[in-house]
Structures are given as structure tokens and as C-alpha cells.
Design goal:
Layout (H helix, E strand, L loop, with lengths): L9 E4 L3 H12 L5 E4 L17 E2 L6 H15 L2 E2 L2 E2 L1 E2 L3 E5 L2 H16 L5 E4 H6 L11 E5 L3 E3 L1 H14 L3 E3 L4 E7 L2 E7 L3 E3 L2 E4 L5 H6 L7 E11 L19 E4 L4 E6 L2 E6 L5 E2 L14 E2 L3 H14 L8 E12 L5 E4 L6 E5 L3 H17 L21 H13 L23 H6 L2 E6 L2 E7 L16 H4 L4 H12 L2 E4 L4 E6 L3 H8 L11 E7 L5 E11 L2 E6 L2 H10 L5 E4 L4 E7 L3 H6 L13 E6 L2 E6 L8 E7 L3 H12 L5 E3 L1 H11 L14 H4 L23 E7 L11 E4 L2 E12 L4 E8 L9 E6 L2 E7 L10 H4 L1
Parallel strand pairs: 1-2, 1-15, 2-11, 7-17, 15-24, 27-37
Antiparallel strand pairs: 3-10, 4-5, 6-10, 7-9, 8-9, 12-13, 13-14, 16-19, 16-20, 16-22, 17-18, 18-19, 21-22, 23-24, 25-26, 27-33, 28-31, 28-32, 29-30, 30-31, 33-36, 34-35, 35-36, 38-41, 38-43, 39-40, 39-42, 40-41, 42-43
Helix pairs in contact: 1-5, 1-8, 2-8, 12-17
The structure holds flavin-adenine dinucleotide and (6S)-5,6,7,8-tetrahydrofolate (THG).
(6S)-5,6,7,8-tetrahydrofolate binds next to strand 30 and strand 31.
Length: 805
């Protein structure tokens, strides 16, 4: 007998571009019992989508976001409402008025190339020729993206809604959700002011109302609603009769990022959006509940005045016009500019898709539908995961400060290592005071202060051996970092590994749980450390972990952030306890050929335990768990203790290390050393889009241990391999496109100079045929093609002798 599988009943809260697209994508996949509820009237319910000018620029430093945008373009291009367009492919033009911006346009061209979106960096005259109001003398050049264009957001809502309805979905206006019904940790439905709807799955697509909707289920939805100014001018004679009224626009959409402005045509008028004004946070609870357009606030002309001057400076034809209409429109910002996608950590079946632009809406909806129906999206969504933040990062104060910052910086030229200015410091390790004394230059990630290098090491003799590099690659870098890397290989160094996420998994079912959850065999003797993977059902790499057996039923898991912790928590059975111990503990990496000499002076314990083994020892007065693991590929240990003893541990090691020339070393050295050894960083070098064999870590999959291991035999679609640049003076940063001849064939993930091998390293994804060692490729960096050659790995100490001494 075939089992009867009931289609889940889905309620979507919100009929903006996101809710409508989710309904469309779900019904396309056979989940046809979908009810979309909106507090407003359909299909102009009054959210951000009801009045968004709909510019779709696909360029984005995040590959996932760029791919979401490309899918939006593709999908909306094929949709209409009664013959009227949903997408108008006028193209996009980002102009440069400063040399720095022109460089940045080259970088953005690189992002686009790496995701397969065609674009060209044009000289000023060619760029100006694309737009009727733009003069060549005003700009230095432009980035032209022919497939960018305008989305008609309300029409995109209607077109997708109609299609979903034709497959069985319902869209109901005038239905404000006021309660989410639940039983035994699962959603069972929602209640509106007038009705009740049963549901197995609820998807919150309520846009900037997210914090209010989330509050119904105790879910902090970490976004900040902010107003953003948009105006329309009076008609321009220059544009009269150029574009037919239905099409609305024919000139490319225009971005003038040096002045935080964007432009589009509305027939013979110009629409101008500005990010130049002060951040204007809005509390959604304060918005009038019963107007038809609660997201459209009164225009504040004084805030727009400088932008109006800047707009007329770029497009002098605007001098003959005035601002005919303006409004302060509300939409969502987040702490890192990425959307919030995923399932509530504590309420099964309650999903969120918030802080999504029109630009990314269809891609996001596709990912959500795949996530719900298939278990995981085709896209790497870890950077969008609702559960990526720590509790402090979800606090209203943090969200407000970071999100407002994001508004200000939305068009700024941001270096990949630029740390956000505030609120800082937030998370510090117990070693922070010592690091400050040693002149640490800090970066920040996941809220943690992380030393990049230490000015105290400026006098190291190795500094003189470190080659220089270009201006961009020199930011947030110092030759001192190179000296720290060499000192690690030649003597011994202390690395603060506290930000590495640590989870204790314990209980009678702990071993079986981890055995079923990961790709490796973790059922080993107490003291064993295993490098293992969490995979999707299709074999995509969600994360790489180290699992240390502390006791028969107690394991320490070294993970890659909050998303991993969330996964462990939500999948753990009742007889397994999952505790994130990161904050209450700390970790020092003591690595280098003299590491044993330093440690031996501080302990009576036998240090003759092997590579990838662990023991409980005392270092001075400090009890530590010592793991013979090294992310830099040297002899040494990760030493873990509780936060209160961290400083004592540091001081003991520091004192004992003096006679061995110990140095404190930072992230910059760590990255260089890990790339010399070919150690992948999960989320950066590989993601759920890649299988272990493609990522070159199939050794971590024990046959038969995990469902995703089926992917191991499959032919790789691409391979992650190191490329060495011919000219070691060039160091790239990551995300650059890789060419074979004139064809873009892949892109860089991580890059660094390898100080011990005197080579500039760039790990890159390449087609299998080009991944063979010795293949010539070129990496495009600021418009230049840098020749390089693929190499066999690991690049340093291929036999791992140094680790095993
Ligand atoms: P919304 O469209 O706001 O939809 C959320 C819906 O949820 C609303 O209809 C609301 O009524 C409903 N709702 C809320 N609470 C409840 C409840 N309790 N019960 C039932 N229903 C509820 N993006 C671009 O990509 N390009 C642009 O050029 C662009 N320009 C913009 C310019 C302005 C001035 C503004 C304001 C935004 C702009 N955006 C742009 C951003 C874009 O408009 C939004 O990010 C996007 O529309 C959000 O879509 P959404 O479906 O998430 O939210
Ligand atoms: N230390 C610990 N846990 C971690 C990390 C860490 N968990 C998350 C992340 N980092 C995992 N990444 C790696 C990557 C490589 C190695 C360890 C953790 C590593 N690999 C060796 C290799 O590839 O040759 C050994 C693998 C093996 O023998 O199985 O050491 O930094 N605690």
C-alpha cells in the first residue's frame, strides 16, 4: 500500500514580494495548501513592496545574494499581469566620480563575473552614452550590467499570487495575524482579528513588521525598520516622448554611489533615492495601523536637500525641474546587511523570510521553498541564516546600532577586512588585556575582537624579510603579520582561538547522535579527536567540525559558529544535552617547533600523546584540555580552560616561552599558515553547495557512516585548488574571478601570501579539467589579469612531519 502523504498546510504572513514569491515557489513544488494572509488590501497591502521603485542591481559581494538577484531577474522576466511587464531590462549603470570608485567598479565587475552575470567596465564616454542625462565630463567611468533593470514590485506580487492561486493557494486581505497557535513545540495555526487558520508550517514574510510578528512567538527578529527617502521630479523636456507610458523607462537604472544616490525614469520624470540622509529608525508599533500605506511616511525635505544638490550636479538637466513628490519609505535593515531566513530555533514549523529586497525576493523564495520541501536549498544560505547571531547580537541596542551603520555604509567602498566601528568591543577573550599591552591591531567577526597582528612584534628580525604588496591588499595588513607566521614555523607562537565555537555534547545518546549527524567515525577511544563533517542529504558541506571524546558519553565539538550550534540543538534527541560553552571558556593555540619545550616546563604530565589525541593536563596551576590539533600545521596544542583561568594560562605560557622566542600571533598570520597547509575554512572556501570530494576533504567521510556520503563517488562538478601567482608581489583578497584564456572559469575563495613558501596563494574553484596541478590560469584583480598556475597541495610540509614530531 502506498502511504498517504498529506500536503502540509502552510500559512504565509504577508503578501509583499516575499510572501507572494514564497507562495508561488511552494505551489510549484506541489505544496498547494497555501494561505497567504495580509493585514492590508490586496494586492497593494501597504508594505514596502507597495511603493518600492524596484531597481534591481545584481552586483553584491555575497555570491548568494547575487545569485538570488539573478534568479529574480530571470523569473520576473517571464511574468506579466494582463500583458504588462513585471521586469523591464533597461540595464544597470554604476558610475564612478572618484578613482577609488573606479577601482571598486572593477572589483564589482569581478563579483558579477564570478557568479556568471555579464558586465563591462566602460570608459566615461561610453558610460555616458548609455544614459540621456549623463555627461561624460561628470564621471570617470561606469560599470554596465545589461541584465539589471526594473522590477514592478506590486505587479510581481500580483503575477506570482495569481499563479499560486491557479495552483490552489488562497490570498486573503484584511487579515491581520494576532496570534500564532502552537502545541508541543510546533505551530498549529494562526489567529487573525476575525478568523483562525490551521497550519503545519507558518512562514513569516511580514517585512519590517518582523519584530512585531516575531514577538507573537517569542522570536527576536533582528532587523531595524528605517525610513529611506525617495522623490520624483517634475517632467523633463529632455525626456518627453522618449519612453512609452507602459514601459515607464528605457534608460539604464543609475547608481551614483559616491553620493549615496540612485536614479530611474518614470516616463518623463526622474525618480531619485537617497541613502545620504541621517538614519531614520522607525518603530513599527508606532505606525498608524489603519492607513492604507503605513510604510510611507511624510517627506522631510530638509533631509533631502544635500542629495538634491548632488543629483543636479550629476545630471544637470534636473536643474530645470523641481521635486514633485517625495516620501520617507520604510523598509528593513540588518546588522550585516543580509536577510533573515530560517526556522525558529524553538518552535518547529515557524519559518522566517525577512529583510529581503525586491531584488533578492524571488531567489530568497526559491531557497525557502527548497528548504521546506527538500530539506535544504540549492544556495549556500549560512550567511542569511536567521540563527547566525549570538544573543548579544540580537539585542535591540546592537541591532539598532549596526543596522543604522549599515544604512550609512550601504554604498561605501568596504574592504573585506574593514571592521565595523561600533558597538565595540563586544566580545573579548580573557587574553584581551595582554593583547592590548602587546599592541594588537584588532579586527572583528561574530562580535569577537580578534587580533590581526601585534605591533610589539615590529622589531622581530623576520619583518625585514617580508615582501610588500599593493595598496588594497595592504589595508588591515602589516609585514609584522608575516614575521609572526615565520616565527610560528621557526620557533613558537601563541594564538587566541577563543572565538572558535565550542559545544559540549553529552548524555547517554551523545555518541550515537554525533555518529549519525556527522560523516566521520567518532565512536573511538576516550581522548580521540576526529575531523568530521555535517552534510546535507545531497552531500553538501554544511560545516567541518572536530569532535573530541572527553569521556564515554561526553564530547567537545569544535564548530564554525552559531548556525552549527543551532543545528546541534535542534537535532539532538532527548537523551543528549547540547551546551554552547564558548563564552565561558577560552582557547590558546600553542604552536611551533618549540611548543613542546614551552609546555613541558609547565607540566608534570606526559606530553607524549599523538597527533589528533587529547588529554586533560595541568599547565602551571591551570587545568586544561589539551588537543594535539593545529590549524597552522605545526607541532603543538590547542589548550582549553575556563575563562576565569585564561589570563593565568597566558601568563604561564608567556613566561615559559621567553627563552624559546615565543611571540603572540594574530589572524593574519593564521590565514597564511592555514592556506600553506590547505586547511579549508567552512563558509568561505566551501559550503553546502559543494561536496567533500569537490572541496578536497573526502578523507573526512567514512563510507557508510552518513547519508551524504553517497556524493563521494559522484564526479566532481568543480574542484577547490591552490593557485600560485607568477608574481609574488601580487596578493589578492578573495572573490576574484579566475580566467582560462578569455573565459571566466571560476573564482577565488581565500587568498594570502605564504611566507614560508615565498608564494602568493589563492585558493579557487575551477572546473576539474583545469584543476590539475600545473595548469595556467589568470586571476582578475582590479581589472588586471594576473597569471598564475595551479599547484599540488598541501603546499607546505606535504608529509605532515612537523605536526607529528
Ligand atoms: P512588505 O512588502 O512590507 O510586505 C510585508 C507584508 O506583511 C505587508 O503587506 C504587511 O501588510 C504584512 N503584514 C505585516 N504584519 C502582518 C500581520 N501581523 N498579519 C498580516 N499581515 C501582516 N528594494 C529593491 O530591491 N530595489 C529598490 O529599488 C528598492 N527601493 C526601495 C525604496 C523605498 C522608498 C523603500 C521603502 C524600499 C525599497 N526597497 C527596494 C526595499 C523593498 O521595497 C523591500 O525590501 C521589499 O519590498 C520587502 O518586501 P516584503 O515582502 O518583505 O515586505
Ligand atoms: N580546531 C578545532 N576545531 C575546529 C577548528 C579548529 N572546528 C572548526 C574548524 N576549525 C574545523 N577546521 C579544521 C580544518 C582542518 C583541520 C582541523 C580543523 C586539520 N586538518 C588536518 C588535515 O587536513 O590534514 C588533519 C585532518 C585529520 O587528520 O583528520 O587539522 O581549528 N578544535
Amino acid at each position: 500500500m502506498t502511504p498517504v502523504v498529506r500536503i502540509p498546510r502552510v500559512v504565509v504572513i504577508g503578501s509583499g514580494v516575499v510572501g507572494a514569491a514564497v507562495a508561488d515557489e511552494l505551489t510549484e513544488r506541489g505544496w498547494t495548501d497555501v494561505t497567504v494572509l495580509d493585514r492590508g488590501a490586496l494586492f497593494l497591502p501597504g508594505g514596502s513592496s507597495s511603493h518600492a521603485p524596484g531597481l534591481v542591481f545584481q552586483a553584491n559581494p555575497s555570491r548568494t545574494m547575487a545569485r538570488f538577484a539573478s534568479y529574480t531577474v530571470e523569473k520576473l522576466s517571464g511574468l506579466d499581469v494582463d500583458g504588462k511587464w513585471c521586469f523591464n531590462p533597461v540595464g544597470g549603470l554604476e558610475v564612478a566620480t572618484t578613482p577609488e570608485r573606479l577601482d571598486e567598479l572593477h572589483r564589482r565587475h569581478g563579483f558579477l563575473t564570478s557568479v556568471g552575470v555579464e558586465s563591462t567596465v566602460l570608459a566615461a564616454s561610453d558610460a555616458a552614452a548609455l544614459h540621456p542625462l549623463l555627461g561624460e565630463e561628470k564621471i570617470l567611468g561606469g560599470l554596465h550590467i545589461p541584465s539589471d533593470g526594473l522590477a514592478k514590485a506590486p505587479r510581481a506580487v500580483e503575477a506570482q499570487a495569481r499563479r499560486a492561486i491557479s495552483r490552489g493557494a488562497r490570498f486573503l486581505g484584511g487579515q491581520r495575524v494576532v496570534e500564532v497557535l502552537r502545541a508541543q513545540g510546533r505551530v498549529t495555526g494562526v489567529r487573525t482579528e476575525t478568523d483562525e487558520f490551521g497550519a503545519d508550517v507558518v512562514v513569516q514574510c511580514s517585512g519590517f513588521w518582523g519584530p512585531l510578528t516575531g514577538a507573537l512567538v517569542g522570536l527576536p527578529t533582528p532587523l531595524l525598520p528605517m525610513a529611506h527617502q525617495y522623490v520624483t521630479t517634475t517632467p523633463l523636456p529632455d525626456l518627453a516622448g522618449r519612453t512609452d507610458p507602459v514601459r515607464e523607462a528605457s534608460a539604464p537604472i543609475l547608481r551614483h554611489q559616491d553620493r549615496d544616490l540612485y536614479f530611474r525614469e518614470h516616463g518623463d520624470r526622474i525618480g531619485i533615492g537617497s541613502y545620504a540622509h541621517r538614519p531614520m529608525p522607525v518603530d513599527p508599533a508606532d505606525l498608524p495601523a489603519h492607513t492604507s500605506m503605513p510604510s510611507s511616511l511624510d517627506f522631510t525635505p530638509e533631509d533631502f536637500a544635500p542629495s538634491w544638490d548632488d543629483a543636479r550636479a550629476l545630471l544637470p538637466a534636473l536643474n530645470g525641474t523641481e521635486i514633485a513628490d517625495g516620501f520617507n519609505g520604510v523598509f528593513s535593515f540588518t546588522a550585516d546587511g543580509m536577510p533573515l531566513l530560517g526556522e525558529h530555533p524553538g518552535l518547529r514549523g515557524y519559518w522566517v523570510a525577512e529583510a529581503v529586497w525586491v531584488t533578492h525576493s524571488c531567489g530568497v523564495a526559491r531557497a525557502m521553498a527548497q528548504w521546506l520541501v527538500d530539506g535544504h536549498p540549492e544556495f549556500d544560505v549560512h550567511g542569511c541564516d536567521l540563527n547566525r547571531f549570538t544573543e548579544a547580537q540580537r539585542s535591540p541596542a546592537y541591532v539598532a546600532e549596526r543596522s543604522a551603520r549599515n544604512f550609512v555604509e550601504v554604498y561605501d567602498i568596504l574592504h573585506p577586512l574593514d571592521p565595523p566601528a561600533s558597538p565595540r568591543p563586544l566580545r573579548v577573550s580573557p587574553f584581551h588585556a595582554r593583547q592590548v599591552e602587546l599592541g594588537a591591531v584588532f579586527g572583528e567577526a561574530a562580535g569577537w575582537e580578534r587580533p590581526l597582528w601585534f605591533e610589539a612584534n615590529a622589531a622581530l628580525p623576520e619583518v625585514g624579510r617580508i615582501p610588500g604588496r599593493g595598496e588594497w591588499a595592504s589595508r588591515w595588513w602589516s609585514p609584522i603579520a608575516g614575521a609572526e607566521a615565520l616565527a610560528t614555523r621557526e620557533r613558537v607562537a601563541l594564538y587566541d582561538m577563543t572565538p572558535l565555537t565550542r559545544v559540549e555534547v553529552s548524555g547517554p545518546g551523545a555518541c550515537a547522535f554525533l555518529q549519525g549527524l556527522t560523516s566521520g567515525d567518532v565512536d573511538k577511544s576516550v581522548g580521540a579527536v576526529v575531523y568530521t563533517l555535517m552534510l546535507t542529504a545531497a552531500g553538501g558541506v554544511l560545516s567541518d567540525l572536530t569532535v573530541t571524546r572527553l569521556a564515554e558519553d561526553r564530547f567537545q565539538v569544535g564548530a564554525n559558529g552559531e548556525v552549527d550550534v543551532d543545528r546541534l540543538r535542534r537535532l539532538a534527541p532527548a537523551d543528549v544535552h547540547v551546551a554552547d560553552v564558548t563564552a565561558g571558556t577560552c582557547c590558546l593555540g600553542l604552536w611551533g617547533p618549540r611548543a613542546r619545550d614551552v609546555l613541558a616546563a609547565l607540566t608534570d604530565n606526559d606530553l607524549r600523546f599523538g597527533y589528533f589525541r587529547s588529554r586533560r593536563i595541568t599547565v602551571g596551576a591551570v587545568p586544561v584540555t589539551a588537543l594535539r590539533v593545529s590549524y597552522v600545521g605545526e607541532l603543538g596544542w590547542e589548550l582549553y580552560t575556563t575563562a576565569d583561568l585564561g589570563l593565568a594560562l597566558w601568563d604561564a605560557l608567556w613566561a615559559a616561552g621567553q627563552e624559546h622566542g615565543i611571540v603572540a600571533a594574530g589572524r593574519s598570520a593564521l590565514t597564511s599558515l592555514r592556506l600553506e597547509k590547505g586547511y579549508r575554512a567552512s563558509g568561505l572556501d566551501m559550503s553546502s553547495e559543494d561536496t567533500p570530494s569537490e572541496a578536497g576533504i573526502e578523507f573526512a567521510v567514512k563510507p557508510g557512516t552518513y547519508v551524504g556520503s553517497a556524493s563521494v563517488g559522484a564526479p566532481p562538478r568543480r574542484k577547490l585548488v591552490p593557485v600560485l601567482l607568477d608574481d609574488p608581489q601580487h596578493v589578492v583578497m578573495g572573490a576574484e574571478p579566475v580566467y582560462s584564456g578569455d573565459v571566466p572559469v571560476g573564482y577565488v575563495t581565500s587568498a594570502a601570501y605564504g611566507y614560508s613558501i615565498d608564494a602568493s596563494i589563492a585558493y579557487a574553484w575551477l572546473p576539474p579539467a583545469l584543476a590539475e596541478p600545473g595548469t595556467a590560469v589568470q586571476i582578475e584583480y582590479f581589472g588586471e589579469r594576473l597569471p598564475g598556475v595551479t599547484a599540488a597541495e598541501p603546499l607546505f610540509d606535504p608529509e605532515g612531519k612537523r605536526l607529528r614530531t
